[in-house]
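User: Can you help me understand a structure? I only have the sequence.
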Amino acid sequence: MPPEALTSEIYAGEPRHCRLSLQVCADALEAVVRPLDPATGTDADFLYRRIPYTVAADTPARALEEAVYANPLLVAPFARTDVLLRTPGCMVLPADADADTAVAAAALMGIDSPQAEPLVASAGRLYSVAAMVDRAVLGFVRRTFDMARTVAHPMAVLMRWFASRSALGNSGKVYVNLRPDSSDILVYNHLGPAGAVTVGGTSLPDTIYYIMAMASAAGLQGDRCEVHLAGMAERRAALAAELGKYLPAVVPAIIPSALLAMGRQALAAPLELSILPLCE
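Assistant: Let's start by predicting it. Here is the structure, written out as tokens:
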């Protein structure tokens, strides 16, 4: 049975006092609605919904369009809107990188496409994250959510969030954001960000391999490395148990108190959507 459509009748809050955060994925649209000030919210005020695309849609843009218009709440006049566009590949570039730089980098990495155009967003004071996004998808987002203040790849959000925590303590850190179909892995050493990548699939050996390989490449080994696990609870336990055989410090990522106060839906939502208001 398809999920109940998102309408103004099923959400108690007033859109003009709320914030809509969307993540466009390959197979679904993820949506979070919350009060504009997350510190004032409760469990009932935080709504998370994953909206699978219809298999009948013939293009990514058409699939996204159908998902949005089948859920009228998403086009209500919210006080603020954010849109994250999750693509298979992204690039960490200097903070002053522009669209031309992103196109050149994408060509070198082999992720360019004539159907895509660059999307560049700040990932902190020194870095930006660029991605090549389907042109029709990006066009629909810009037309439909023309007042969106954030349009970015989710890795830009994750880099801003984890950078503020990586300086705590004396160890290098690996942050892993576990998703239903992939893992975001971010590595920080004493110089700052040392790597950020999204690994497709949920294979436990593959995930461990990439975590260990990225930590080693950043010069993090043994007691000089902490691994912090976030994201899907269903994947965390098994990964923590296996990683603990190789690294002495494998711990859950710290959950902000503001999210804990907003209840189960806030914890079940994708990390990159939940933390958006907290890392600006």
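Now, to help you interpret it: The longest strand covers residues 192-200. The chain has a mean pLDDT of 90. Let me know which part you'd like to focus on.
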